[in-house]
Write a structure and sequence with these properties.
The chain has 137 residues and is of the alpha+beta class. 39% of the residues lie in helices and 26% in strands. The protein has one domain: Double Stranded RNA Binding Domain, CATH 3.30.160.20. Strand 1 and strand 2 form a beta hairpin. The longest helix has 18 residues. The protein is globular. The model has no long low-confidence stretch (mean pLDDT 92).
Length: 137
């Protein structure tokens, strides 16, 4: 079974939470769950935050994150942006929130949690399952 297929598997309902009052996707899984799935499927990976995004007054509003992971034998590098959805006024806490957002968005680029963004239009796991069944037969 390919790592891409394993990453694309939807999370079970008991791991999915709802964001109350969010202007973004209502369903989410927390950072630890995303990290656990990535480690389960791909093993060790590298995560870094090469750039912090700040307002002119120095307030942290986001960051650029970089995920380096090997999927099905191919080294993949993904850069994504994360934002501070609920500013706390604490630069470190806000950077942590932005980094978590960027990490989850980067993981989505390799299929992990993509079903949460796609909603009813999600098809990747089924398509990969069919492909793998065809390869096995």
């Amino acid at each position: 079974m390919s790592q891409l297929y394993q990453l694309a598997r939807p999370f079970p309902p008991e791991l999915i939470s709802k964001k109350p009052g969010s202007k973004f996707a209502a369903d989410y899984v927390n950072h630890a769950v995303v990290t656990a799935r990535l480690l389960e499927v791909c093993g060790p990976f590298n995560w870094s935050v090469p750039r912090v995004i700040q307002n002119p007054d120095g307030t942290v509003v986001g960051c650029f994150g970089r995920l380096e992971v090997t999927v099905d034998g191919e080294a993949v590098v993904i850069e994504e942006v994360g934002d501070v959805e609920r500013p706390s006024g604490n630069a470190a806490s806000d950077l942590k929130a932005a980094s978590s957002d960027a990490f989850k968005r980067a993981a989505m680029r390799v299929g992990l949690g993509l079903h949460l963004w796609a909603g009813e239009q999600y098809f990747l796991a089924r398509a990969l399952e069919k492909r793998e069944a065809g390869d096995a037969g």
